[in-house]
Design brief:
Blueprint lengths: L1 H30 L2 E7 L17 H8 L1 E8 L5 H10 L3 H4 L16 H7 L3 E5 L16 E2 L15 E7 L35 H31 L5 E7 L14 H4 E7 L15 E2 L3 E2 L3 H8 L25 E8 L2 E9 L3 E6 L17 H11 L5 H4 L8 E5 L17 H17 L19 H8 L3 H12 L6 H8 L4 H16 L8 H8 L5 H13 L5 H11 L5 H7 L8 H7 L7 H11 L13
Parallel strand pairs: 1-5, 1-6, 2-8, 2-9, 3-4, 3-5
Antiparallel strand pairs: 2-7, 6-7, 10-11, 11-12, 12-13
Helix pairs in contact: 6-9, 13-15, 14-15, 15-17, 16-17, 17-18, 18-19, 19-21, 20-21
């Protein structure tokens, strides 16, 4: 008898648990909205709702009428992997040391917001791009992350979902074709496109712009398909839909740069009737509040009624009880492949301050991926031949350490007002806020490539905090070195004698940028000593070698660079590239290196173009 009673009690308990489980799911469905992300790649706001009527996008035009259209949305990062790292964690990528594009780092495994949604009953899918720039990201972030992943695959149809679909038809690979041959089925006429004033009007640029707009038109059909799928699933009335791009456009001076062309993105959010109270609607359907990728995760959690964890750096911009809108947006970039050219920016939506910490290098540093775009080649070649305006030539000259733009009145951001007396108060304010943010949040992005601890067991982010590394001092050294003039020489020498290699590195950059600007002619003995020290960090030695070569102070420096290229040392290719015509004395050795297919032949051919040995047309010639 006792045995039967026990069995009945167990059965009763199971029934109660199942009932409560079902009841909880029903409550979750009533209280928590579904969220669908439609993400396109490498696209600026090239849509009619943002004023660009080059191509017809009828689906998105209608979607815009049904949505809140954000006019000041930014990706924070100017490249895919740092932007997506920020997106998935709500931590700025430089603060995680995941800002160096395509250089994966270990990240604490709790810094992924879909895990929080999963813990709160959501079914989470990703189709299918990840690219978080993390080498150790957990496999349990998503219920499913592959080309078949979909909210339609969940077992319980009353379970709320968060689903991401990525479209890569607008990605740089669309135009990274090395030449303009075989571009068939065109819809956009080459003569119908506008050429920004910072670009020369050459055939390659017109062709890339027109070919890219064709991709935007095709993308509209993909959006149509995804919205129709949502309707057919019966979930449209329960689902908040986001449409956005993962960063700015891929055309020259866009992706990888902190101008609006590289960081400003389209963002539209459509709310079904039952969730209109979460929409923060304005008098029109336009919202001019500043929002960035760092804010997306807190916003989703807020829409789902979930408290934001303390590690997140963003704040919600939709849902209940949202805070005051941001006053500025933080932007960043780290590298162009091997070239370490970190920049940071703050924009208030009108005024933007960009700080280029490696002011010795130009924006136009060749790199093997984007230089597969005919437009970059066309601009580069026009510059070599002298067929560019003063404005168009600036891209190929050492960057200004500080750039300040009135983006409202100068949408192409071509008039640097940093020396304008009327704006000095605003410039001072943004400089102070930018450096304070970097220090407060511990920006690790000014550690050069080789100085970022690579051990997977302890993420660099964690190591820096636990060992109290001198992050503030490194930021100060980079800031002073980037803007250094002759009055800063004594401070620069102190940097060269520092015990911290990152500080020695920035001191060396400071001397190189002064040399490029002809502020100095000779280099201090401290730099020579660092180069001659065989135990010195290789990046410090390479930067010292570059300065010595350009100052004509040591022939051994050029041989050192060549030896590092022969050893296939990653950063050495950046040094080789940025030496320009100074590689002439090692031209014969570089010609010999053309036989070594294990080396990065793009940079060797680039150097031989700089020396005058190869013609520009040979850059991608497989027979050369």
């Amino acid at each position: 008898m006792t045995k039967h009673i026990t069995i009945l009690r167990v059965l009763f308990t199971i029934v109660v648990v199942l009932f409560l489980s079902c009841d909880n799911k029903c409550k979750v469905n009533k209280e928590k909205p579904n969220v669908l992300w439609l993400v396109v790649e490498d696209m600026s706001p090239l849509l009619s709702v943002y004023g660009d009527k080059t191509v017809n996008t009828p689906v998105l035009d209608q979607f815009a009428k049904e949505s809140i259209v954000f006019t000041n949305a930014y990706s924070n990062g100017a490249q895919c992997s740092p932007a997506r790292s920020t997106l998935i964690s709500s931590i700025y990528a430089p603060m995680l040391a995941t800002d160096f594009h395509r250089e994966k780092r270990s990240v604490p495994d709790n810094f992924y917001f879909p895990k929080i949604l999963k813990e709160n009953g959501y079914y989470c899918t990703n189709n299918r791009k990840t690219d978080y720039n993390a080498k150790n990201y957990p496999k349990d972030i998503w219920h499913s992350s592959n080309k078949k992943a979909s909210y339609k695959n969940r077992d319980h149809k009353d379970q709320p979902f968060f689903a991401v679909f990525n479209y890569n038809g607008t990605h740089t690979k669309r135009v990274a074709t090395r030449n303009t041959k075989n571009r068939t089925n065109r819809n956009v006429d080459l003569n119908s496109v506008s050429i920004p004033p910072y670009l020369p009007d050459v055939p390659e640029i017109r062709d890339d712009i027109a070919w890219y707009y064709d991709a935007v038109a095709k993308m509209d059909n993909w959006v149509k398909k995804k919205l129709e799928e949502l309707e057919k699933s019966g979930e449209a009335d329960n689902t908040i839909v986001f449409f956005y791009s993962d960063h700015g456009g891929c055309l020259p001076r866009g992706k990888a740069y902190l101008y609006d062309t590289g960081t400003r993105v389209p963002l539209m959010v459509r709310f079904p009737k039952k969730y209109q109270h979460l929409a923060q609607k304005t008098a029109s359907n336009k919202n001019s509040n500043l929002v960035g990728f760092v804010d997306f995760a807190p916003t989703l959690l807020n829409l789902a009624g979930i408290e934001k964890p303390d590690f997140m750096m963003g704040k919600p911009f939709l849902g209940k009880n949202i805070p005051e809108p941001k006053s500025e947006i933080f932007l960043f970039r780290a590298n162009q492949e091997q070239s370490f050219i970190p920049s940071r920016a703050l924009t208030d939506g009108r005024y933007k301050l960009i700080w280029n910490f490696n002011a010795a290098y130009p924006n136009g540093t060749r790199q093997s991926y984007q230089w597969q775009m005919p437009s970059y080649q066309g601009w580069d070649n026009a510059n070599i031949k002298g067929n560019v305006t003063t404005l168009q030539k600036q891209f190929w000259q050492p960057s200004s350490a500080l750039e300040f733009f009135d983006s409202q009145n100068d949408p192409y951001e071509i008039n640097n007002l940093v020396d304008n007396k009327e704006h000095q108060s605003k410039i001072k304010e943004l400089k102070s806020k930018l450096l304070n943010l970097m220090k407060e949040k511990k920006d690790l992005g000014l550690y050069p490539w080789s100085m970022r601890r690579r051990k997977d067991s302890v993420p660099f982010f964690t190591y820096v905090k636990e060992t109290k590394q001198p992050v503030t001092e490194i930021i100060n050294a980079a800031a002073i070195s980037s803007t250094a003039t002759n009055k800063n020489i004594d401070q620069i020498k102190k940097y060269l004698n520092s015990n911290e290699p990152a500080i020695r590195y920035w001191g060396t950059v400071g001397l190189l940028q002064m040399l490029e600007r002809k502020l100095i002619k000779t280099l201090p003995k401290e730099l020579i000593a660092n180069f001659n020290n065989t135990e010195e960090n290789i990046e410090v030695r390479l930067m010292s070698a570059e300065a010595m070569i350009k100052a004509n102070q040591n022939k051994a420096a050029l041989q050192f660079v060549l030896d590092q290229v022969k050893a296939n040392y990653f950063i050495s290719y950046a040094t080789l590239q940025n030496l320009g015509g100074f590689v002439k004395p090692i031209e014969k050795e570089l010609i010999e290196l053309r036989k070594d297919k294990f080396l990065n032949q793009f940079y060797i051919k680039s150097a031989l173009i700089n020396s005058g040995y190869l013609n520009y047309k040979d850059l991608w010639n497989p027979d050369i």
